[in-house]
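re the bet — no i am not wrong, look at it urself. input seq straight from the record:
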Amino acid sequence: MPTSLVLVQLFNGLQFGVLLFLVAAGLTLVFGVMDFINLAHGVQYMLGAYLAVAFYRLTGSFFAAAALALPASLLFGLALEVVVLRHLYVRDHLSQVLATFGVILFLNEGVKIVWGAAPLNLALPELLSGSVPLMEGLRYPVYRFVIIGVGLSVAGGLYLFVNHTRIGMLVRAGASNTAMISALGVDIKRLFTIVFGFGAMLAGLAGVMVAPILSVEPGMGDQVLILAFVVIVIGGIGSIRGAFVAALLVGVIDTLGRSFMTDALRLVLPASPARMIGPALASMGIYLLMAAVLALRPAGLFPAKGRA
């Protein structure tokens, strides 16, 4: 297979991985610190994309739309936590799943009422619309490199925040033993609100970044939510490092599998069976990886301390 095609798909997998990390990072903190199963996390990703489109229509600037969509995502996440989700913390996981699934249905219908059911698009600014030569005859879009750069920068910032700030220390302690830090006098409700709002903003950032390259439509967060749960199971609940490594693994494996699985099977199977089996195996790849990790390391690759 051509080296240029492999290189392009590796970059695509890396880009997909960093977007998954932005969604999964907030989800793993909410799940790890708060022991709260939030199925509505995917709609934060969707709302980030819709808010970016809405602010672009108001300002005519992609950069202004992105700058406004992030605090708006944060405020919406905080409002959702205060009005709905805060009342579910003491409930069992089944209640949390049912209630947050209801939030998904409500917000998916809500965006249809506000923005309509038709897919929307966000135009790229001219500054980011070019491409970069990778090798002779091969160019790669500038904006996809921007996504990779933003994702890696956020990952570095999260590492510093979680490991070198007081709030980060409380987050790590909460992921290990929530009851203990509550007993030590930490305002656990305030910590939960900070974690939830921060997670909502990260998911919104992923939605903002993906809006120019994918259709913005109701329900767009549902598939991303499933993949984000796969990421936090593989990486370890409550672990930012685990979410980062697992997101890159999932992104690269899924992208390469969908691109090359059929061609790989043709080396050992006739063309017709390879075409039938290849796409099915490619879609199963990340779930097979998750099963293997759970068999060998049930707590994930890099679980938070106290969860191993």
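see?? The first strand starts at residue 131 and ends at 135. told u. also The chain has one domain: 13-296. so pay up
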